[in-house]
Amino acid sequence: MRTRTALIAGGVAGSVAAGAIAAGAVGRTVLRRRTEQDHPDDALWDLPPDDLGPVRSFDGTQLAVRAAGDPAAPMLLFLHGFSLDMTTWHEQWVDLSADHRCVLMDHRGHGSSEHPADGDLSLRSMGRDVAAVLEAVAPGRRVVIVGHSMGAIAALALAEVRPDLMSTSVAGLVLVGTSASELVRGAMGSITELVRPRLGSLLSAARRVDRLRKAVLASPTDLRGTVVRLTQFGPDAPRHVVDHVVQLAGRASSEVWIDGLAELFETDLRHVLSRVTMPALVIVGEHDRVTPPATGVQLAAALPAGRFLLVEGAGHIAMMERPVELDREIRAFARSVLSDGHAPRPRRRVPSKGRADR
Fold it and tell me: What phi and psi values does residue 51 have, to the nearest 5 degrees?
């Protein structure tokens, strides 16, 4: 198992390196072409106004939790992806807090949450963190969990570590750009075959990824922005959104990139999918290279009440690229599962606007 996952981790390093090579050739042209439509936006760093933390998790780790919206309104809990933080949900809490209580948390070791004393960055511990937040801020309530990438896996992990809470507190799941196993297999593709890294331990492979990350982040602004754009976003992602993700990746600790990434590679939760019986909406961007659309179709099919939605024009971070469309789908899904009605009919595709929402 570790030999196989070490190969996968090495493939990630290769994909970053290959992206950097490609970026060197096209970076300046791509960014020049988008200068007029993109604009900086410091508002992405704004946090929800209500500070509900810190919430103490099962092992004493203090978790940052914030909220917006009427405390009595239907509740949504947002879980961010790997090396990111709650600011990636800015457009969602600003819009959806008009008629929902939006609760956001930073995962352990990420954002404003503590790094665990024992270094435990496993997805199952993150699932237990989600349980701690639910019990602290939503006791006795039904909640829709909205998770992106690693955050969506943490939501699935809740079914394994706290099945009681999953069945009593979670009314539905929105899973954006994720998989139950081998999260980044789609990002490898032919890169793994091209690079063929030396086999080694999983941690040593993750360290190579971290070194490459630092090298890319130390490169000129246009180069690192293009690397992130090529690996994480669709072709029309606004520049200020790409820049924001670059900054978040730079702020994440090496512990997250080494230990957390190793855990992410190794986690396999396919065995719990049959227990996730509540309605689940799996959303994938058309240009997602980390979790390609086929991965989302497979995940939705494996979930007893799963359905699949493709967002045209988006990449791996669809909620930042197509916020208007994502908010509309989240709002409709939450309304359906938090009421007495049945889940809405599946819709396979969101019409493309030919541009970003913003």
Answer: -90, 110
* pTM score: 0.80
Task: List residues bridging with 176 in a β-sheet.
Answer: 148, 283
Question: Quick one: tokens of 352?
Answer: 């493309």
Distance of CA 349 to the CA centre of its chain: 20
Rounded to whole angstroms, the Cα distance separating 190 from 193 reads: 5
What pLDDT digit, counting tens, does each position of 156-169 carry?
999 999 999 999 99
Radius of gyration of the chain (CA): 19
Closest CA to 133 of 47, 48, 54: 54
The span from the CA of 119 to the CA of 88, in Å, is 24
Residue spans per domain, the chain: 48-187+243-350
Tell me which CATH code domain 48-187+243-350 carries: 3.40.50.1820
Q: Tell me which DSSP letter residue 355 carries.
A: S
**Do strands 65-68 and 50-51 pair parallel, antiparallel, or not at all (unpaired)?**
antiparallel
| Low pLDDT (below 50) residues in the chain | 1-40, 185-199, 341-358
β-pairing, 65-68 vs 101-105, is: antiparallel
pLDDT digits (tens, 9 = 90+) for 85-107: 999 999 999 999 999 999 999 99
Please name every residue paired with 77 in a beta bridge, in sequence order, or none if there are none: 103, 145
